[in-house]
Structure formats: structure tokens, C-alpha cells
């Protein structure tokens, strides 16, 4: 009797154990499938023309490197024709079905491209800001400078891919006025706003300047422009200012 009870209890315990294991397995599986719980941002619905919202705005940031030649995508949370075109170009760049509708395929591609702090995988806040750690002291509030830097990084991520997935070398990004003065930067430099970035190394400065015209940079300065023979400067100024005379720009 005593032994039977023991065996019964053991069986019960084993059964409970197996059930618990199955339950935990189910949890893991459910989490894995529901997935797309991204460390940065997770989209909860498919987005298409005419929709508005913070999720549209988050999408616009990620596709800001895919506007028309010479254009800058407005990040306003409204899914208009320019956003649709940018989504199509993004989809084409990654070999997805290019329908201009941002659904699971598009979001999964974005998840694969972004770090938990929302920067694209090949760029970081640290390399963009060697001036001060809190993004203050520039021409705009620190949060704006940091946001502008983020958008610029996504533009560079697009440009990097278009150039054949080559590394891009950043020599200078955000600068406070103090940092800008220290390096002799221009008075109204986009570096003070967070979106300005200087590229060195390879590809050639002209190749960088020419390619940048396709990726949402309204401020492009390169070889032939005073002080820009040893790097190419990119940024997003309110109106277009391109000058790299040695490169035909
Ligand atoms: Zn610069």
C-alpha cells in the first residue's frame, strides 16, 4: 500500500513535470512564432497609402534613404505617394515583392537591419558622436540632434547597400558649437544639427558624393568645394546645397 502510494505520487510528479516541460516548450514556440518582438520597435499592422500614425512615422525613418533622386522624404507620419515610392525602392533593394505596402516581409527586413537602439546595423551613435555624450550644445535640442543623426544613419545604410554593401568610414558626425569651432567647421554646419556627416576612406569621395544624391541628402559637399578635398560631407539642409565641382556636382 505504502509502495503503491509512492509509485502513484512519483507518476503524478513525473506527469506534472512532463506537462510543465511541454507547457514551457509551448511558450517558447509561441514566442518564437509570434516573434518580431523587436528590441527597437515592433509594427503591429500592415501599412499602406492613406494611413497615418506613429507606426507610419517609424517606417518613414527606416526608408528615408530611398526617396526620388534629389528628394528628401518628409517624416510626418502620413503614408502618401512619396512614402509609397520609398517603400517600393526599399523592397526592390532587398529583393522583396515591391508593392509599396509595408507588411510582414518588409518589417522583417527592417528588423534584420536594426539594432536594439534603433540604429541600422552598420552604424552607431558612438561613431556619430565623438564630440560629447549627451548631444547637447549644438544648434538644436539634444533629442533633435540625436534623432537627425538616426535618420541620417538610415540614409547611409541605404547608400551603403547601393554601393555594394561596402563599409563607409565616418570621420565626423554631430558637433556642439565648441567641437565645431575646434575643428574649424563652417558656421551653419549641419554637424551642429546632428545630420551632418563626413565620410573618408573608400569608395572615392566623388563616388560617395554622386551616390548620395539618390539617398535623401540635400547637403552634399565634396572635392572641388573649399575644404572638402579630403572627405565628402553629407547632411540634410532645408534647401538643396550640392557642390563637388571636381565630381561634376
Ligand atoms: Zn562636414
Notes on the structure:
With 249 residues, this protein is of the alpha+beta class. The protein folds into 2 domains: 37-118, Orthogonal Bundle (Muramoyl-pentapeptide Carboxypeptidase, domain 1); 125-247, 2-Layer Sandwich (Muramoyl-pentapeptide Carboxypeptidase, domain 2), CATH 3.30.1380. It has helices at 2-34, 54-62, 81-93, 104-113, 125-128, 142-162, 177-182, 205-212; strands at residues 169-172, 197-200, 219-221, 232-235, 241-243. It has a 5-stranded mixed beta sheet with strand order 1-2-4-3-5, covered by helices on one side.
What are the salient characteristics of this protein?
single chain, binds zinc ion, disordered N terminus, 249 residues, Muramoyl-pentapeptide Carboxypeptidase, domain 2, five-stranded mixed sheet, 8 helices, alpha+beta, Muramoyl-pentapeptide Carboxypeptidase, domain 1, globular, 2 domains
Give the SSE layout.
Blueprint: H1 2-34, H2 54-62, H3 81-93, H4 104-113, H5 125-128, H6 142-162, E1 169-172, H7 177-182, E2 197-200, H8 205-212, E3 219-221, E4 232-235, E5 241-243
Parallel strand pairs: 3-5
Antiparallel strand pairs: 1-2, 2-4, 3-4
The structure holds zinc ion (ZN).
The site of zinc ion (ZN) has 4 residues, from loops.
